Amino acid sequence: MEHTPFHSINHNTRLKGLRFESLEEGQNYLDHWETRWADTRIHGTTKRQVAAMFAEERPALQPLPVEPFRYYQYGQRTVNLDGCVEVDAAYYGAPPGWIGRHVQMQWDGHQVRLLDPRTGQLLREHLHQARGRHRIKEEDRPRQTPLTTLQLLSRADKAGAQIGALCRGLHQKDGETAVRRILGVLSLAKKNGAATVGDACAAALEVGIYDYHFVRRYLERQPQLPLSLRQVDPLIRQLTLYRDLIENKTKENEA
């Protein structure tokens, strides 16, 4: 059976200029070279034989780990109002008392670690989750609704009755993991106007769907009037009412 010639591509090794008919032949050559020359040579720095030094070190050597060396990505995150940090569009719980504070992050395809930025102490370690999923330890779940969440729900109520009802429904259904979606609804109200988002929330409530994504898709499919021509707050009345008032005042003045 013919073998493809094996050549060394590293010109700074003992294989320079040599040619082998197979990998096995090249390996045999290197094994012989290591036994006859590499192990018996005198090390240039220590002035001792390499094989003798290795014999002294061998008892202290530990077996290689079963798992391959892991390469982590690093970053910094702020703990959100829901008590979680975001990594690759998934959410991981921090210990109580860390909302609004920074944590150092390490993550790979298997694990996500949260560390104290001052001491480097490991705060939490979670299994890596798919996009959109949450991972929160049971002891980190609040026993009662946090003050920050109560304030957020109050903001939703002030934005409009339908907005408040949907946001409270979100929180009742999913607890603290709904906080980001409640923030999303309020962001939509700021961008599109409370009256418009209130209509979208009313549609969601009518069909019993407590879902931020439903509200967003509803807004995307509804034709939007220019900002100057549409209501942006529930306190602003319909333009026809202002028209009728002006017409009545004009008639009174003429009379």
Please, could you describe this protein's structure?
By secondary structure, the protein is α+β, with helices and mostly antiparallel strands. The chain has eight helices and nine strands. It has helices spanning 23-38, 50-57, 147-159, 161-174, 179-192, 194-206, 212-221, 239-254, and strands at residues 6-7, 19-20, 73-78, 84-87, 90-93, 102-107, 111-115, 122-127, 134-135. Strands 3-6-7-8 form a four-stranded antiparallel β-sheet, with no helix packed on it. The protein has a three-stranded mixed β-sheet with strand order 4-5-9, with no helix packed on it. The radius of gyration is 34 Å and the shape is elongated.
Please sum up the structure shown.
With 255 residues, the protein is an alpha+beta fold. It has helices at 23-38, 50-57, 147-159, 161-174, 179-192, 194-206, 212-221, 239-254; strands at 6-7, 19-20, 73-78, 84-87, 90-93, 102-107, 111-115, 122-127, 134-135. The strands form 3 sheets. A 4-stranded antiparallel β-sheet has the order 3-6-7-8, with no helix packed on it.
